[in-house]
Amino acid sequence: MTVSSEPGPHPAAGFARIDTSLYPIIVGVFVALLLISNIAAVKLISFGSIITDGGVFLFPLVYILGDVLSEVYGFKAARRAIFLGFAMAVLAAFTFWLVQISPPASDWPNQEALESILGFVPRIVVASIAGYLVGQLLNSYVLVRLKKATEGRALWLRLLGSTAVGELADTIVFCTIAFYGVITGGEFLIYVVAGYVYKVAIEVILLPVTYRVIALVKKHEPTYGLVAA
Description:
Layout: E1 2-3, H1 22-40, E2 44-47, E3 50-53, H2 59-73, H3 75-101, H4 111-118, H5 122-149, H6 155-179, H7 185-205, H8 207-219, E4 227-228
Antiparallel strand pairs: 1-4, 2-3
């Protein structure tokens, strides 16, 4: 990124510096939500005929914060946060695996329970990490490209457009790697479609909140609009 003392003709299409107090806080919350969602995703949940996983409760918030990072700080800064989240997800999976294979104390009776919840399941781990990485990178890239194309106008368009692309890629990659063959036929299609529709719907419902958060972050970032991607 390059920094100019002049905002240029369209400062709303610019970004903010990352050497501020807000960027690391947002990244920290972003990574925390990602890790919690990944742990929750090990449970399949059934709402009538709709099957989804436990990640649906918090994972949409990961995309909302991803939108905030991309909108305010640009693709390079968002990509840094995405890769950090990826590294922490790998570390978490490796740690759970080490805990799982470590011999339990003789008077600790919960080894099977731990393995059933946090046990290392390679297919789920690969699915979660791959879906997250592909989806988040696409989400950020599309948002920033739309921001440049619209010269900083029509925030709703880039938020919804990036969400539609990113969540679609994430859902397809995760569901295919994690549950294709486990959930079959029409049930698998319902699982994919329901998961995607739910995640997008949550972000649409929370759009006013996303607007407000982005406005607050921009307001408290004195360099916003001075950094060009």
